[in-house]
Each structure stands twice: as C-alpha cells, then as structure tokens.
Design goal:
about 300 residues, alpha+beta, Structural Genomics Hypothetical 15.5 Kd Protein In mrcA-pckA Intergenic Region, Chain A, Pseudouridine synthase, 9-stranded mixed beta sheet, 6 helices
C-alpha cells in the first residue's frame, strides 16, 4: 500500500481529469480509486466530478497490484442455493472473498471459478461473480452472479437498499433499550489506513439493531444493514462503545479471538434477476459462535 500526497496548483478542474496524468493511470483506474474511497481532498471523500481548487491537498491510496491471473482451486463451498443466474454461499469464517495481497489462491473466488463455468465480469478479473462481500473473519451468506445481467440486477437492489441483509453478533456491554439505529458516515480512518472510521464527510452508513439476548456483560444482537460500507457493523458498534466480541481491529486488543469477530451474516433476501420472485435464505452460525454463546449463557445462570 502506498500513499501519495499532492498539493494542487493550477486552474479549477475535475479531479478525475487531473489525476490520470499526475498518477500515470487511466481515467477508468482513477475513477475506480474514487469509487473505492481511496481518494481524499482536504481530508474528505470526494466524487469523480469534484472540482479541484488552488492549494487543495489530495491524498491517494495506491493499492499494490495483485496477480490478475487467478487460478481455479478445488476448495469446498457450502452452497445454499444455485441456478443458472446466481449462487448463494455460506462463507466460513477465515475465508477471504476475493484475491488480494497475501491471498491469491485460497479465496472464495478461486473456489467459485472451479465450481462454475461462467461468472459475471463486471468487477474485473480478480472479482468474477462478486457483487458484495463480507469480511474474512465474518461468516455467513452472500450471493455471487453467473452473468452480467444478474450482476447488474442484484447490484441495483443493493444500491436501492431493497435487499435484506441481517447479521447476528455478540458485542461487549448491555443496553437499556431493545432497538437502535446508528446513522453515522464511514470513511477510511485518516489516522490508520488499515481501518475505517466514523468521519464527517464520509459515505452514508446506516445500521439498525435489535437486542436478542442479554448475556451478563455481553449482548446478542440482530443487525440489519441499510447500507453496505466496508466494516460497517464493526465500525458502528465500536463507535457506540459496543465493539463486536473478538474483533482484532476495532475491539480490545488483549481480547481478540483466534476465531475472529463473532459476527455472522444470517439472513439474505433479494428479488431473483430472471425469476422475478423474492428469494430468502437463512443459515445458522458456525459451531465456534454457538459454543461461545453457550459459554456466556452458562456464566450468567
């Protein structure tokens, strides 16, 4: 990862016209950097149409390129549903969704390429079929697409906030209310580029939650995503001082778990791209999550 700082000097112009020449990249590459929240101007997230002015400070996060030749790998997948358009997968904790630095041949994409003859191409060579993702150490449901029509259809539903995405999580602390809504914008943390944070001027991020069970000094929550920002639930829960148990990035460092965060994508719903009917799926959390719940329940008996 490489961070580039640029002090803009010149006449006013769009940032997506200025950066390609400055960074020696194509306009498409620059627009992808903007879309993926890798560009800040004066500390704030901007769109491709942003007009640069004299003395603006531009910060660009350049991600090292990964090998674009992604190999098929015979890795087991827990497939919940599959047809000619979509495949719904129950991803285990510990599996990375798509290739990135340090993970080239052990991801869900490697497994999907082995399993499927065709996958959508919209997100490029290293993310075939991927419409949305969940973190490496988060388990649960996500949908991949086998063609571009299905991909665009599902992507529009995600953008329009019409999909159903519900998680369960064990978090630190207790609540004096049963329902809550966190509406706080998220952006890459200016102080630590490996993390996301609630930052003024960030992208809209809304999480709804419901307390399912009180577990002494912990709580079991159901969380519903209205938006889908990177690390959204983990960031939002830490923001309200209820970090996810076991979270190595946003929780107490001394209490990080080898299993990772106790966060599970339990429910997924969307309109099928060609059948035009509602699809809804639910899966139970992995055994490590269930065992931790039982352990905490036993402590409060």
């Amino acid at each position: 990862m490489n961070k580039v700082l640029i002090k803009y000097e010149g006449i006013e112009q769009r940032i997506d016209k200025f950066l390609p020449t400055k960074l020696n990249k194509s306009r498409t590459e620059v627009q992808n950097l903007l879309k993926n929240e890798k560009v800040l101007v004066n500390g704030k997230l901007v769109k491709a149409s942003f007009i640069l002015k004299e003395q603006d400070i531009i910060e660009v996060e350049i991600i090292e390129a990964v090998n674009s030749t992604i190999e098929k790998k015979n890795i087991a997948l827990d497939i919940v549903y599959e047809d000619k358009d979509v495949v719904v997968i129950n991803k285990p904790s510990g599996m990375v969704v798509h290739p990135a630095n340090g993970h080239y041949d052990d991801t869900m994409v490697n497994a999907l390429m082995y399993h499927c003859d065709d996958l959508s191409t919209i997100n490029g060579e290293i993310r075939p079929g991927i419409v949305h993702r969940i973190d490496k150490d988060t388990s649960g449901l996500l949908v991949a697409c086998k063609n571009d029509y299905a991909h665009n259809h599902i992507a529009k539903q995600l953008k329009d906030k019409t999909t159903i995405r519900k998680y369960i999580a064990i978090v630190y602390g207790t609540f004096d209310h049963l329902y809550g809504k966190i509406d706080a914008p998220i952006l890459r943390d200016p102080a630590n580029r490996l993390k996301m944070a609630v930052v003024e001027g960030g992208k809209e991020a809304v999480t709804h939650f419901r307390v399912l069970e009180k577990l002494g000094d912990y709580s079991l929550l159901e969380l519903k995503l209205e938006t889908g920002r990177t690390h959204q639930i983990r960031v939002h829960m830490a923001y309200i001082n209820h970090p996810v148990l076991g979270d190595p990035l946003y929780g107490p460092k001394k209490k990080a778990s080898e299993f990772g965060q106790y966060l599970h994508a339990k429910s997924l719903g969307f309109i099928h791209p060609t059948l035009n009917k509602e699809m809804f799926f639910e899966v139970e959390p992995p055994i490590e999550f269930i065992n931790k719940l039982e352990e905490l329940r036993n402590l409060v008996k």
